[in-house]
């Protein structure tokens, strides 16, 4: 893609809720449309934002498919619906399974971005039973392949770039559009997610880290302790930048007192219940990533005993 020329972006929605589209509209400093202008990106189609007639839209798709129009960036929001009975007819475009259109456009796009957890890994629709059978573009939960197959590459030789999140963090899409439009290389992690946004965990940067360290546990919402031990926080096992790039530049779930739901995880939303921590003999079943259970058991009581009074105070007051 020539960095000086106008780049085309086609936004396709499939099995999803449009939450990612809502999220990108929350981008600020600058807002989404100003950012697109700065990057010289032309959104040739977005189902909620475009004003093309159905006929004009069909003609444009024809132009892309017969190579009259170049498609630089294809964004897919939502999973690829395969049901019922593998027909794909639960999600259609002009009377045909929408997956056919997805497949055809993927063959033409220079770069493809899976926007949100549904498009990346299947997400919510992949847990709604075999009848719907929604799958990710190139990965289904933690299994490589998905709809396009593990070996698929876009015209510029890249795999699908996964930007999970339910919804996506607007800054992560802004980052990817920046990189693609400038022709810069993007480092991808094991789940084909950009390391700049998905290498660290939500736990890193949480303002309750000190509470976690000393096991000052929140039992009831609003106590100002760590929500890992009882209230289902998945921050230490979730790779996302929510406490590094704050939402609306001011906040995150855990900073607002809501546990991390693990929405960027490949198994989302079925890792475990949202507001409760599964335990074995009083210890969380899923320990922070990389922590050895034997060491953790030896350390946890000592840490709680050493907790400073200034941290315990608020929790004790509320008990
Ligand atoms: S509330 Fe969650 S993210 Fe914050 S310190 Fe505790 S476990 Fe980590």
Spell out the key features of this protein.
single chain; 10 helices; five-stranded parallel beta sheet; 319 residues; elongated; two-stranded antiparallel ribbon
Q: What percentage of residues falls in helices of 4 or more residues?
A: 25-40%
Number of helices: 10
Percentage of residues in DSSP E strands: 5-15%
Note the gap between the termini: 60 Å
Q: Which descriptor suits the 3D outline?
A: elongated
Number of DSSP E strands:
13
Mean pLDDT: 94
Q: What ions, cofactors and ligands are bound?
A: iron/sulfur cluster
- As residue ranges, the low-confidence spans are none
The ordered H/E elements are EHHEHEEEEHEHEEEEHHHEEHH
Rg for CA atoms: 22 Å
* Largest β sheet strand count, sense and barrel closure: 5 strands, parallel
Helix and strand composition category:
alpha/beta
- Sheet with the most strands: spatial strand order: 2-1-3-7-11
